[in-house]
């Protein structure tokens, strides 16, 4: 491409510029499918030269056409296959929320002749995992038939074909596989290569909304309304047999079982379709059922999952990245993935006789999916095993579901009854994360204990604090997704109001350890330890402000009267969210987006532009006014300030002259947490220790300066007295103002 400067005659410049703007504007405005479909017969191979490798013997490629857009491939005047793009036919959202676009070739026998990724927006592949891993995975489809039942990861079972997965990108590769197979089948069905299946032509069933009568747990599990997937540990070991994951899971050598107690359960999972009133209303109660149906709207569906065992169906993916990577629903050739916005807690089930479960959740199937309650669907549970620092192997367990005939059209078989324990395996999976977090918290504890010694060494403290803030943002925040939220406090309060279960909080070890540490430090040092040292978004703001000050960006300090009134805003936000949470925790989670934490930390700015703009605006403001959001808007900070009033010790030292008349610390405090009379407001203090550095500074703090000068003058006074005594012949001079003896 020419990169120099082309000199045009003045008369030609405007017209060429206008033409260039129009052409490039069309390229950005028109959808990719329109551009692809508009290619002339000879343009496909020009735009995508790799299609020549898909069909080496082809002599020409036809235009893209059909309801399932694809270009015919010719040899000697006869069609030998088709080329298609998955985004035009099966645009299934991947981890990023956007489809992965794959160029696919199929022959007339339904064999995949080529598969190449031509576009993706996957953040997990843009940071950390090489793109080549995705390209290599996609090429594994070459030679497979579009009728094959493909399993991603794990071993090859009878009747299926296995593909190697990518550790850390499970959702992405499963979506790529489904996109390729679904798009290729659509093209094959339309062109007569593959007979149209009965399920693709089925008419959607309708739920009988008028059918309701009271039922209990035994009745709904007995008639198939609530189904069960019971997986023993031995089954999991057998599934990984012959793979790199064999023997790397939980040991099956368990202690001997006591009579009548469950033994060896990996997961005991119950699942159901909630739209029929016979199920949803009995399980949720009339009020919650009506609220859920109103939330779903026209065309929405909901399923409930309830489980005990050592394996969590939620996993930790949704905490780290806003997506559930262990479960999905498959119906026909479509795969339904669940994001954080598709999830609600099943708080207080009202179904009589229902056993206790460690996990109870509701997942929403949005209107965009072509879900039919009258057709069978499968719940797929992914089990992963770590086989190396960055490598994992997978296996999938599938559970079938059919809606009972009484609720719509078709019957369903019966299923058995319950059993029970859950979070240990998650902690085992994240042992390295827990160890690293433990080291960081131990280091911070030492900093807090020896704060006086460090405050006397200002440069060392600055280095330690800056380094720790970087680790908080990069490791605790972006790597571990360890950002606390005000929603966590509402969940805790709701658990205390209902039936408290530790398993609810133990399923994310990083958040549990952070909350435990914060609870302890609230009593010892106040809220400032978390807000000033451990909050990833707070660290992001502080680092932005430090960079701005280095660039000499002017700092805007609000007048004391305005500042003190703005403090109240975050408490008002907290009260509003808390009131909403008492009515509906799910609604409170929506309004809690006033916190930019999910956007900036949990999802690492991989989100809709409005959320990104809001988070970036707050970071930008903090460059001019340090930690503006923390001081005035953060409901989590307000929630932590309430119990912080119970702190036992007061570690921050003050001189009697502080505030009367000295105002040095008050003027330098970026959080403005020191009042005019020198008192530190511990409800607002972020424990940065800047005031303690000043406290010990003998060249800045007036009381310390005065002490230093007295110490410096004392030796001079003694030396002068000795010189005078010598001059007087050993006679000690009379002290001024006192009579001699």
Sheet having the most strands: 5 strands, antiparallel
Give the distance, in angstroms, between the N- and C-terminal Cα atoms. Answer: 103 Å
Which structural class is indicated by helix and strand composition?
alpha+beta
Shape: elongated
Strand content: 5-15%
User: Looking across the biggest beta sheet, what order are the strands in?
Assistant: 1-2-3-4-5
- Please count the beta strands (DSSP E, at least 2 residues each): 16
**pLDDT below 50 for ≥5 consecutive residues: which ranges?**
1-15, 21-42, 198-202, 251-262, 410-422, 736-741
What would you report as the Rg, rounded to the nearest angstrom?
Answer: 33 Å
Percent of residues in helices: 40-55%
Q: Determine the mean pLDDT.
A: 79
Number of DSSP helical runs:
31
Write a concise keyword list for the protein shown above.
741 residues, 43% helix, 16 strands, single chain, elongated, 31 helices, five-stranded antiparallel sheet, alpha+beta, disordered N terminus
Explained architecture:
38% of the residues are buried. With 741 residues, the protein is an alpha+beta fold. The radius of gyration is 33 Å and the shape is elongated. The strands form four sheets. Strands 1-2-3-4-5 form a five-stranded antiparallel β-sheet. A five-stranded antiparallel β-sheet has the order 8-9-10-14-13. Strands 12-11-15-16 form a four-stranded antiparallel β-sheet, covered by helices on one side. Helix 17 (458-479) packs across helix 22 and helix 23 (560-583) runs antiparallel to helix 24. It is 43% helix and 13% strand.
């Amino acid at each position: 491409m020419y990169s120099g400067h082309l000199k045009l005659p003045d008369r030609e410049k405007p017209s060429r510029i206008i033409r260039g703007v129009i052409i490039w504007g069309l390229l950005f405005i028109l959808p990719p499918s329109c551009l692809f479909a508009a290619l002339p017969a000879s343009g496909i191979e020009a735009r995508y030269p790799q299609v020549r490798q898909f069909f080496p013997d082809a002599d020409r490629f036809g235009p893209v056409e059909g309801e399932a857009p694809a270009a015919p491939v010719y040899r000697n005047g006869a069609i030998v296959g088709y080329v298609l793009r998955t985004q035009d036919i099966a645009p299934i959202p991947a981890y990023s929320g956007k489809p992965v676009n794959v160029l696919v070739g199929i022959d007339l026998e339904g064999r995949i002749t080529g598969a190449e990724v031509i576009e993706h927006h996957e953040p997990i592949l843009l940071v950390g995992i090489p793109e080549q891993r995705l390209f290599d995975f996609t090429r594994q489809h070459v030679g497979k038939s579009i009728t094959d039942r493909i399993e991603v990861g794990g071993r090859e079972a009878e009747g299926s074909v296995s593909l190697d997965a990518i550790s850390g990108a499970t959702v992405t590769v499963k979506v790529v596989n489904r996109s390729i197979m679904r798009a290729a089948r659509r093209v094959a069905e339309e062109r007569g290569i593959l007979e149209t299946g009965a399920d693709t032509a089925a008419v959607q069933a309708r739920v009988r909304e008028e059918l309701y009568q009271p039922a209990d747990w035994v009745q709904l599990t007995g008639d198939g309304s609530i189904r069960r997937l019971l997986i023993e540990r031995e089954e999991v070991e057998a599934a990984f047999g012959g793979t790199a994951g064999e023997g790397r899971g939980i040991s099956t050598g368990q202690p001997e079982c006591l009579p009548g107690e469950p033994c060896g359960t990996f997961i005991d999972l119950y699942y159901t379709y909630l739209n029929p009133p016979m199920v949803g209303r009995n399980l949720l109660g009339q009020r919650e059922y009506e609220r859920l149906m109103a939330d779903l709207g026209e065309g929405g569906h909901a399923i409930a999952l309830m489980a005990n065992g050592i394996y969590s169906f939620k996993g930790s993916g949704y905490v780290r990245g806003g997506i559930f990577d262990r479960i999905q629903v498959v119906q026909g050739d479509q795969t339904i993935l669940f994001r954080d916005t598709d999830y609600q807690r099943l708080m207080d089930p009202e179904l009589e006789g229902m056993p206790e479960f460690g996990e109870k959740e509701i997942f929403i199937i949005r209107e965009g999916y072509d879900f039919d309650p009258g057709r069978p669907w499968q719940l797929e549970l992914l089990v992963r095993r770590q086989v190396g620092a960055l490598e994992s192997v997978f296996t999938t367990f599938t559970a079938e579901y059919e809606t009972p005939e009484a609720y719509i059209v078709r019957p369903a078989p019966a299923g058995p009854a319950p059993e029970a324990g859950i979070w240990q395996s998650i902690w085992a999976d994240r042992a390295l994360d827990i160890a690293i977090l433990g080291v960081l918290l131990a280091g911070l504890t030492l900093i807090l204990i020896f704060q006086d010694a460090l405050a006397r060494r200002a440069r060392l403290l600055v280095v330690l604090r800056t380094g720790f803030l970087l680790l908080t943002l990069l490791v605790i925040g972006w790597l571990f997704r360890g950002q606390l939220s005000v929603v966590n406090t509402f969940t805790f309060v709701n658990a205390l109001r209902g039936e408290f279960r530790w398993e609810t909080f133990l399923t994310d070890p990083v958040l549990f350890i952070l909350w435990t540490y914060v609870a302890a430090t609230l009593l010892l040092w106040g809220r400032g330890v978390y807000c000033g040292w451990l909050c990833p978004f707070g660290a992001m703001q502080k680092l932005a402000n430090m960079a701005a000050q280095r660039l000499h960006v002017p700092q805007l300090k609000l007048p004391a009267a305005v500042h003190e009134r703005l403090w109240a805003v975050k408490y008002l936000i907290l009260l509003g969210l808390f009131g909403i949470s008492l009515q509906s925790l799910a609604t409170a989670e929506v309004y809690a987006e006033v916190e930019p934490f999910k956007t900036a930390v949990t999802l690492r700015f991989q989100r809709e532009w409005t959320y990104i703009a809001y988070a970036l605006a707050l970071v930008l403001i903090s460059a001019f006014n340090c930690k503006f959001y923390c001081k005035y808007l953060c409901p989590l900070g307000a929630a932590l300030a309430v119990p912080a009033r119970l702190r036992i010790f007061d570690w921050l030292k003050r001189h009697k002259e502080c505030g009367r008349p000295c105002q040095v610390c008050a003027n330098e405090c970026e959080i403005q947490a020191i009042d005019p009379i020198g008192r530190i407001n511990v409800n607002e203090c972020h424990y940065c220790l800047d005031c303690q550095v000043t406290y010990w500074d003998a060249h800045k703090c007036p009381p310390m300066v005065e002490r230093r000068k007295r110490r410096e003058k004392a030796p001079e006074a003694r030396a002068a007295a000795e010189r005078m005594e010598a001059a007087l012949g050993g006679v000690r001079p009379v002290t001024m103002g006192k009579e001699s003896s």
